[in-house]
Design brief:
seven-stranded antiparallel sheet, 10 helices, two-stranded antiparallel ribbon, alpha+beta, single chain, disordered C terminus, disordered N terminus
Length: about 375
Amino acid sequence: MTRTNGRGQTLTTGLTWFSVGLGIAQLVAPGRMTKLIGTRNTDDARSLVRLIGVRETVAGIGLLSGTKPDAWLGGRIGGDLIDLALLVGAMRQRGTNRSRLLAATGAVLGITALDIFGAVQAARAAAQPHNPTSSGRKTPTTKTIVVNRDPEDVYQFWSNFENFPKFMNNLESVTTTGNGRSHWKALGPAGKRFEWDAEIVENRPHELIRWRSLPGADVDNDGSVRFERAPGGRGTLVRVNLRYDLPGGIFGTALATLTGSEPGQEVSEDLRRFKQVMETGEVVRSDASIHPTMHNARPPEQPIPLRDSFHIDVPARRQTHTWQEARERLESADPMSGQSGETRAPARSDAADRGAALTPGGAP
């Protein structure tokens, strides 16, 4: 992801929202746009305005992504030249407003100049060496958690970055490339894939790991994780410090927050799952955690079929019974006292039968 600084960044942001706003206006009200620039309000003219609106909207979304802004601005320059040619051709037609066409041509010339300047600034920024400490726009977040394992064990697991997809939901893969470097693939808002390379800049065994992303990263980030022995021998205090800069600036951060994929939100959940993996060997999922979005708090309409056998766990041993054996035990026992007798209990539902069968001794 390339960066522009100072006036270049402000100009790119302004051109981005101008492109999005103009594109939406051309798509929603093409007739008014033809009158505004002085062309004839015909079906062909309105269709052409809509096509230009699609182009402007796509260019704006591309700039919002924060990926290669110089290339997207270069595309806008090409679109500006096409617009100028269309305006010049419209001046030769009858029934047009030449004064408005001249004003529109002047406006497009000004926008073209700004696009050229912005593209040059973005290209220069892309050619500059990356300095991870120079960015003041990164969003910081700090999270901690206590893991009931020794610092040596926690450090050993964390230092292997390829373990991360086991507890990071939106992380697809991490590939170690050698010399302290690794390649990361993650999913962001709307399923968009982000990739970046990172390197370890400090590594103190059982104490600290510090990293930063390399030039060209889709998500510029850096941070550290510390491993401290918790007071009273309660395990390890894991403290994560992360700084990141999402593509799209404020808009990208807002979108990620709404969709639950903002890194600051994810760190807490990732650490919770990390604790479960370290302490139990797996991530425990509840009914709520398996749904990525809001859902009804009720069982599914189609019940999950039970297997032919079920297990009863007791401290001493593990017993296995078939449904037929469980029903026979229930019929031969008094549900109130657990003793055999001729007196039968009132009829019970299948759900109650299954509940009794799951209870040692057949008691309700």
